[in-house]
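Trying the structure run again after the queue cleared.
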Amino acid sequence: MAKIVINRKWCKACGICYNLCPKDVLDKDDTGKVVVKNPDACIMCRICEEHCPDYCIKIGG
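Done. Tokens:
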């Protein structure tokens, strides 16, 4: 399982990360900020990390 770290203080709820995730790992909470909903599905493609304009997502082990 991939380690997914999200700095929610930096997240501006743009939605880029969860809209680009090919495995539906990420979702939004009631404020629109990113949350990890299915970490076991993560394939560590890093699309979310690379496209986050606020650098609030880190994928690693």
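The chain is about 15% helix and 25% strand. Worth checking whether this holds up in the mutant runs.
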